[in-house]
Write a structure and sequence with these properties.
single chain, alpha+beta, 5 helices
């Protein structure tokens, strides 16, 4: 005996209503996050942009390599003070495949590192298949995280007890912290509140201070970033343009 047509019609209608409800809920949450992020940026005197397709292309490691380049949503750009001076910062929703997978927090250093260092939680399936940025070499445990690096000898000089202590403060909700060129970045959960992001910015800023002290020993300095960015104000947001 066949199933009556009205049953199929009812099932399709229920599925359609459920799908519409999920879409509406997602859109409402997205709108709420947008308003919350926008208000936060205004309170800090920072810039806000709803979408930036270029910004994620300036990084290749960590969460970018794991999820893909994607695009940036609800981007906040500004600068903040750390113990070693003012540093440029970005906060953005990292979206790939139409879904926000994490909130990226980035703090810029004055000089670039010659090695990429990724610090992953041991509970995260951090292996990836990315021809552009394959998984770096495993260095070993660094506190509660595992370090993957592109140059083991160079990384050993950078991963000091102070760096390990600073990384431990970042929190178990952050899947990966990584150092790439002249940036220190972290990937927080998509629903992270401004209060959580404020704390994370402070913690990432402390990590930046460890690897990029204001006046390091000249023999330990890494490759400098552009001369115009050294010292003083480094906040130059440039939405839609890839910066050097």
């Amino acid at each position: 005996m066949g199933i009556p047509a009205w049953v199929w019609f009812t099932v399709a209608a229920v599925a359609g209503v459920a799908g519409f409800a999920l879409l509406a809920t997602d859109r409402a949450q997205r709108t709420a996050r947008n308003r919350e992020r926008r208000r936060w940026a205004a309170l800090r005197g920072w810039q806000f942009e709803e979408t930036d397709h270029v910004l994620p292309t300036r990084w290749e490691a960590g969460a970018i390599a794991y999820y893909g380049t994607g695009l940036a949503r609800d981007v906040v750009a500004g600068s903040t003070f750390t113990a070693d001076g003012r540093r440029q910062v970005y906060v953005l929703d990292h979206e790939t495949g139409g879904k926000v997978n994490s909130v990226l927090v980035g703090v810029r250093c004055r000089r670039a590192l010659s090695v990429v260092i990724e610090l992953w939680l041991s509970t995260v399936p951090f292996q990836r298949d990315n021809d552009k940025m394959p998984m770096p070499d495993l260095l070993g445990p660094v506190g509660s995280r595992y370090a993957f690096v592109t140059d083991v000898p160079a990384a050993r000089k950078i991963i000091t007890p102070d760096l390990i202590d600073a990384a431990e403060e970042i929190g178990g909700d952050v899947t990966v912290v990584w150092m790439e060129n002249d940036w220190v970045l972290a990937a927080a959960p998509p629903n992270s509140s401004p209060a959580r992001l404020e704390r994370l910015l402070r913690d990432v800023g402390e990590l930046a201070d460890v690897i990029d002290p204001f006046d390091p020993d000249p023999s330990e300095r890494e490759e400098p970033v552009a001369e115009e960015d050294e010292g003083g104000e480094v906040y130059r947001p440039s939405f839609g343009r890839k910066q050097p």
